[in-house]
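Task: complex structure prediction.
Instruction: return structure tokens for all chains below.
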Amino acid sequence: MKRLLLFILVSQLAFAQCVEPIDGSVIKESVIFCVDTYDIPNGISISADNVQIDCATSVLRGILGQSEIGIRVENAKNFTLRNCNLMTFNQGLYLKNVTHSLIEDNAFLKNRVGIRLLESYENVMQDNSDKSYQVPVSAISSKFNIVMLGNRDIERSFCEVNACNEYRDMNVCVSGDFYCSDRCNSGNDDDCVGATPATADEITGSVVEKVDVETRIAELEQEVKEIVAQKEVPAGPVRADSSVPLGAKLLFYAALYFVAFIASFLFKKK
Amino acid sequence: MKKRLGWQDFVRPLAVMPFGFWGMYWFEHGFSWIIAIIGIVLFFVALPLLVVWWDQ
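Output:
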């Protein structure tokens, strides 16, 4: 009987293994978040390989206009993010120097940029819903990623070197892009010469040291042009989306006519 | 002596309606210089000129 009770207690602990995200924390192992709404204005960070985060449909919320990044992943491989609702950050998910990751079944709501990719390669983003203010996905110096949103198509310049909206076979062994994939070798990719297939740390070093400054500036300028072109909210005190109900309009016109009618008699009497 | 209303009395106030449409358009779409200039030219320049020069 004691053993049975102990087993029941332990099994309850096993079921209750979900954790609550702590604002500003660094996660280094796989976790499942307890379902709730969490205010994390400083976001959370991941900087380890093979980390899986399952938000279990939790809402991770920042402060609109103040919180910079919701989930920051840097220098990691095989990162997985599922079932998260990230909202009101400047950048919902930020991937820097991340490879072979899976981002699926998440929702990015009311962020300025949903997913920001920087020097990230061969990641898969699928079945994510996006309702960002500015752009759903931004990719700088990132290639061979598969970007598929569940609720909208993406047509941006980075789609030339990434697969957008549908799966596409991509030759990842391209010389001169400072990236050596696991699938490449020195025979088919010059970037692998003198290097074993890249680890995350190695990619960091090589990219940061070798990226041509002018190429980088041109990419950033292109990115800025796209963001400006796609900016939805025009500058200035413009009320672009204030449609007046038809009934209110008719009432206004009727009132205007009535006032003019009265005024015409007043002026006539004088 | 009480005067009966003629049809002109009901038509004349309709002259303010274009101003109303213009104002409503402005309210809905926000301020823009092109709308301001077009409205001023149409209502505050062209209309008075039309009225003054109509019979000349």
